[in-house]
Amino acid sequence: MKTFGLEHATLNACIEEAQQERLVITREGNPVALIIGIDEEQLELGSDASFWELIEERREEDSISRKELEQALKSA
Q1: What is the C-alpha to C-alpha distance for residues 68 and 76, in angstroms, rounded to an integer?
Q2: What SS3 class is residue 4?
Q3: What is the three-class DSSP state of 32?
Q4: How many angstroms separate the CA atoms of 49 and 21, rounded?
Q5: What is the three-class DSSP state of 26?
Q6: Whole-angstrom Cα distance, residue 53 to residue 63?
Q7: Which residues contact 51 (CB under 8 A, 6 or more apart)?
Q8: Tens digit of pLDDT for each residue in 29-74?
Q9: Fewest Cβ atoms nearer than 10 Å: which of 2, 23, 25, 49?
């Protein structure tokens, strides 16, 4: 994660940096904004109702904890 002071941040520089990694903008040393780059696929999925329906369906399915998964993998 990279940090830019507000006094040095330009919109173009922030966009360029956010495409590579998360960018924190600070004012007087305090974080005031987080900029995260996205691509076209992320934008499309985020606004696709069928994608979110699928996510909700998966969340309702039975699952196991990470600890249980790790134990199952060790046993395999």
Answers
A1: 12
A2: strand
A3: strand
A4: 27
A5: strand
A6: 18
A7: 45
A8: 999 999 999 888 988 888 899 999 999 999 999 989 999 999 999 9
A9: 49
